[in-house]
Design brief:
With about 240 residues, this protein is an alpha/beta fold. The protein is built from 7 helices and 9 strands, in the order ααβαβαββαββαβαββ. Strands 1, 2, 3, 4, 5, 6, 7, 8 and 9 form a 9-stranded mixed sheet that branches. Helix 3 links the parallel strand 1 and strand 2. The longest helix is centred in the N-terminal third of the chain and has 13 residues. The protein starts with 7 loop residues before the first helix and ends in a 25-residue tail after the last strand.
């Protein structure tokens, strides 16, 4: 999870900074997903950055495609040599440059907290996932009665500027998922620290969702195969 504007210097030091801050997002997200993925699956990492979020999926035998707005971050990821494809594109601009139903899994661990409304992103994720595919992600977590926005001051961003982040309630996230044809499967709350001294806490939550199986109309009296939400077959 990064707060600074991308630069080559920041990109090169991002992994070390994440380790000093005890960033658990990639491990927690993969922990929710690993029982639901298979070696050889195609994975899209939205906001891939240096590749921290999808590295566990690569080690599990998945083929990773990454998308990020920052050429500096993509460059840092490219030097690791394991991403099958890296694409520069703004997460806020839809549609994304990929065909329908082209991925088995979509993952995002460090950028959703910068978006107030995740509905457009979730709709695009649903378009890109194959039937039965999974969506694993992290976003800011908003408890009952808490504010939606969190302003992180210049002392923590290292830029001289403040950064606004957004927290989303479980019900809000579940609503966006369900209206996009994505069924919530699991979730886990944890903490993100904004500095190595761990003096500023930001509440976050990891989610796992599955794309519902498309129900195609058949001849009268013929029921679709499988229950709604069952994984569809992957193309070879």
């Amino acid at each position: 999870m990064h707060l600074r504007p991308p630069s080559r210097e920041h990109a090169d030091g991002y992994d070390d900074e994440a380790e000093r801050c005890g960033w658990l997002g990639p491990a927690v997200t993969f922990g929710l997903a690993f029982m639901h993925i298979e070696p050889g699956w195609s994975v899209l990492d939205l906001g891939i950055g240096t590749g921290l979020g999808s590295a566990p999926f690569h080690r599990a035998g998945c083929r990773v495609t990454g998308m990020d707005i920052s050429e500096e971050m993509l460059g840092a990821c490219r030097t690791k040599g394991w991403a099958a494809q890296l694409v520069r594109h703004d997460l806020a601009v839809t549609p994304y440059p990929f065909q329908d139903a082209s991925f088995d899994c979509v993952v995002s661990t460090g950028v959703f907290q910068f978006f107030r409304d995740l509905a457009p992103i979730f709709r695009e994720v649903s378009r890109l996932l194959r039937d039965g595919g999974v969506f694993a992600f992290v976003t800011g977590d908003r408890a009952r009665g808490k504010e939606q926005t969190v302003v992180v001051g210049p002392g923590f961003t290292g830029t001289g500027l403040s950064v606004t982040m957004y927290c989303h309630a479980i019900g809000e996230v579940a609503g966006w998922l369900e209206t996009s044809g994505l069924r919530p499967v699991d979730t886990l709350e944890f903490t993100a620290w904004m500095d190595p001294e761990r003096s500023l806490r930001f509440p976050v939550r990891a989610y796992l969702a599955r794309k519902e199986r498309s129900v195609r109309a058949g001849p009268p009296g013929v029921r679709p195969e499988g229950p709604p939400g069952a994984p569809g077959e992957r193309e070879g």
